[in-house]
């Protein structure tokens, strides 16, 4: 039950982060929260580790493909622009939204573009989303969505 509560808390956290974003938002708040949960456990304070940064474990290439968003309009060419954005929950969420706007596609062939497709795009990339998701990511993501659905009635 504690794990489920943490998942719900992560979703509520990202509802507040996402509320003030002024970009096209193809990914719902719930989907964004479950992406975060599946990729990093939504552990606050995550920084760069290897080639991935922040709660969404965003790589430099992902950030660049999203248009190199920054905080407060600072230059994307400024030293540290990538980790500053991707380690900030609001800027990282905006990066995910921008990436999904660019690469949105029906990855699983069900005739619609939805949260399951965004999960595949996030984890496998905009050009490889038709592949198989890693078991742990897939399982955590589906459990999170099921948990939220159980509370939405």
TrEMBL record:
The keyword Hydrolase applies. GO terms for biological process: defense response to bacterium; killing of cells of another organism. PANTHER family: DESTABILASE-RELATED, LYSOZYME. This is lysozyme. Pfam families: Destabilase. Its EC number is 3.2.1.17. It comes from the Eukaryota. GO terms for molecular function: lysozyme activity. The keyword Transferase does not apply. Disulfide bonds join 31-115, 36-42, 85-91. It catalyses: Hydrolysis of (1->4)-beta-linkages between N-acetylmuramic acid and N-acetyl-D-glucosamine residues in a peptidoglycan and between N-acetyl-D-glucosamine residues in chitodextrins. InterPro entries: EF_Hand_1_Ca_BS (IPR018247), Invert_lysozyme (IPR008597). It is an enzyme of class 3 (hydrolase). Residues 1-22 form the signal peptide. Keywords: Antimicrobial, Bacteriolytic enzyme, Disulfide bond, Glycosidase, Hydrolase, Signal.
């Amino acid at each position: 039950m504690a794990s489920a509560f943490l998942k719900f808390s992560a979703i509520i956290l990202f509802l507040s982060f996402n509320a003030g974003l002024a970009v096209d938002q193809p990914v719902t708040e719930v989907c964004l929260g479950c992406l975060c949960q599946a990729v990093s456990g939504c552990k606050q304070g995550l920084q760069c580790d290897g080639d991935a940064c922040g709660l969404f474990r965003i790589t430099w290439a992902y950030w660049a493909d999203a248009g190199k968003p920054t905080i407060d309009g600072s230059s994307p060419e400024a030293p540290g622009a990538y980790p500053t954005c991707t380690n900030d929950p609001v800027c990282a969420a905006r990066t995910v939204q921008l990436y999904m706007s660019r690469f949105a596609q029906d990855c699983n062939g069900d005739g619609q573009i939805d949260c399951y497709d965004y999960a595949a795009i996030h984890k496998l990339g905009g050009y490889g989303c038709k592949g198989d998701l890693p078991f742990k990511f897939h399982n955590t993501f589906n459990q999170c969505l099921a948990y939220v659905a159980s509370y939405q009635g």
